[in-house]
Amino acid sequence: MRIEGVDVKGGATVEGLEGTGWFAVSSYSWGGVRNVAMDIGNGNNADGGMVALSEVNLSKQVDGASEDLLSYLFNPGKEGKTVEIAFTKPESDGSGAKLYFQVKLSKARLVSYNVTGSDGSQPQESISLSYVEIAQKHNYELDGGEVKDGGIVSYNLPQGKLLSGAK
């Protein structure tokens, strides 16, 4: 993961990620729901409106990025920042990692920051990000392990509009 304008030292070291300032995250969670009535005896099963999207939720170990994340909570910038999240998987021959899923948040703000820990363990941070626009790039793997670029699906919340993707 990386945040616009933040250059974390000693963060993620995976080759192939563009730019600097990447740091590791342990988990990612995001989703959306569409209200569709499914009433017994009602054959319409009507769509109730727009999609409701969740915040992006991440967890990570306390590390060199922690100071930057806490500062981002207190000072998100006038319009938020661009946040990029990259998922990698090991190369089949063990020679490194390949990129297979990417998320980009525009005008993102850190809206929740929590730290938990217990005696003898590495403290964990949980953060939540709001955003104005979300884009996801899904790559896919062919037989034999070759990863091919997939499409980008992007959605703008204020406009309530799918900007790119399978329509």
Automatic annotation (TrEMBL):
Alphabetized InterPro entries for the sequence: Hcp1-lik_sf (IPR036624), T6SS_Hcp (IPR008514)
Gene3D superfamilies, per database record: Hcp1-like
Protein name in the entry: Hemolysin-coregulated protein Hcp-3
